[in-house]
Known about the structure:
single chain, mainly alpha, Fumarase C, Chain B, domain 1, Fumarase C, Chain A, domain 2, Ribonucleotide Reductase Protein R1, domain 1, 3 domains, two-stranded antiparallel ribbon, two-stranded antiparallel sheet, about 60% helix
Amino acid sequence: MSKMWGGRFNKSTNPLVEEFTKSIQFDKKLAEYDCLGSIAHIGILKKAGLLSANEHKKLKAGLEGILSAIEKGSFMIDESFEDIHSYIQHILEKKLGKVALKLHTSRSRNDQVVFDAKLYCLESVATTINLLSELTKKISKLGIANLKICIPGYTHLQHAMPISLKDYLDAHTKMFARDIKRLDNVCKNVCLTMGAGAIAGTFIDSLKYNSSIKSLKVMPPENSIDVVSDRDFIIETLSALSIIGMHLSRLAEDLILWSTKEFDFIDIDESFCTGSSLMPQKKNPDVLELIRGYSGRLYGNLLEVLVVMKGLPLSYNRDMQLDKEPLFSSFEIIQKELKVLRELLPQIKFKKENIKKQLEDECLYATDMADYLVQHKAAFKDAHTIIGKLIRYKLKSGKNILGMQDDELKKFHPYLNHKVMKKIINPENSVKSKRSVRRN
Length: 440
């Protein structure tokens, strides 16, 4: 095949090079954004006197026709082309003839690609924020529906202290709120520009580049070298998506544990579980396991782009073509996970009796016992030691604290007795006693 921009070459491109360098198989995702960018670009060309009103009208109609086909899902892509940009150019040339040759005036793919990627990021971030907000609402609703449930809290995956289920679920909404802020910050850092050219800018006056697209301002570049060589916005996006993936993985891990026979705190709806190809009894939380597993790919996507960018000289280098697959992949993973969890979580059933049994572990209330002594003038270090000895005695003797007589308890401290212990060893009382937390 002859080179698309090959006036200085005598030889056609080797087919191996064509196959190796093409990116249309993945950058076809940018078709919509490429058309939108081109519509903005021809408006600039018209303002600059480089397109007549009739030429602008023809090109705009051609681009809007392609956009309409993309939106309807009828846009067919020939993946034999190098990239989506050259393919759209080819379609316009076939439809419109010579006027399409003016589309690339004062434009470089270096500038075009980064514009498309930025617009894709802005739209995909907005979609992801909406999905996160929806999931957060579902989690909050689940907490309110189970307002009275207390569960064992864990540190080091060992029984720690009783906590409310609502507080546990609210911890995840706090994580997702920070994720939304991070994504919002990514958008604030993205500046849509045109006019960087290949590296040094173009001969069109910067004032002509003031435009807008989808209510977003398009500005002339402050530094054209930076524009074509910058991929910080992709790295920041991948970083934010990796953190979301980590948060979703942690939630998935708890739900996986809670669904096991060892915990048996929850029942996951069968429509979100799979069976075993050998064991008839199995009900596996595969969806949650994949959410946990995909976090590794999200981290890998971030690392991949960081490594690609780490040693590149200014400005544009073809290595940057490799930034898009990780970007597309991460958005697809996160958005699929959020959609699945949005439907899975409201259908979780909490097994109150099994949870209640776990809350009978008297060791969960050891800190409450120490706090009680502190509130009766004991130094915390002494209180910690006293209750530690009581727990050791309980475990060694096999006796329940609530089964101990008053004189047995008073051996550890004069203020300890059955009545006090009965009040302390109560999950609701334990949760209510923690007053430093500002609960909604």
